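Schema walk-through. Below, the input block comes first and the output block second. Nothing else is stored per chain. Lengths vary across the set, and this one has 294 residues.
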Amino acid sequence: MMRRPAVLLALCAALVACTQALAADLPQRWVSAGGALSEWISALGGEPRLVGVDTTSQHPESLKGLPSIGYQRQLSAEGILSLRPDVLVGTEEMGPPPVLAQIRKAGVRVELLSSKADLAAVDANLEQLGMLLGAEQKAAQLVADYHQQLEVLQEQVKQAQASHKVPGVLLLVGHAGAKPLIAGQGTAGDWLLRQAGGRNLAEHQGYKNFSNEALAALDPDVVVFSDRALVGEQALQALLKENPALATSRAVRDRRLVPLDPTLLVGGLGPRLPLALQDLAAALYPAAKVSFTQ
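--- output ---
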């Protein structure tokens, strides 16, 4: 009988040692390429492990203090390897492939996740990140909360659509007001517009340039604009200057112009999207007697 406490203590010590060994096997030095992924890593408690991020990783604000590895599609092996990472995390947008091959050859683990704009991709990404961080329970809770927020929003959007016209919307992604790319089907921008209750007028796949004539013919009710270099009124004025066809659209005449943070469109669906969708839905249905809050 006297030996039982000693046996229990030995078992507890073995469990602690096993847990510590498993934790030590997890990658400790992380580099992340893709804004949404970096945000999820932070939300999972993994920010202290980040030793470098790409230029699209702007949130939370604290990430801006980390070394930059450049743009996710134009990575340099030398810059990443200089940070001595255990793992490089990114989406299939990350590259170029020869650089990734060089990083793998140097012994760095490369984890590719999905940038697809759908909830299944969010679920899979969080499961994978949770396993890499040893935070499976936290990842499962984030998934559940994310789904719940979007389900509540969808009910609110349905209420607004029941008594109001569904607006035709264009989402324009520019750079310093230059000729914008229009978010078509299958993009994060298209997913965002539909979730907020809009009808995306762009029927093409992916992101594409449009002529002034084509823009004029679409005549959107609402224009959502997202500029990678300019913000607010400055971005809008530069956009209208380079794209005069927009000036005659109903959206401009009615001043239904909505800015969007471009980092929301990079690296898949991120944790800030539910709140951004609330704001966008409120802009699409300003007269609806629905409070797009949770």
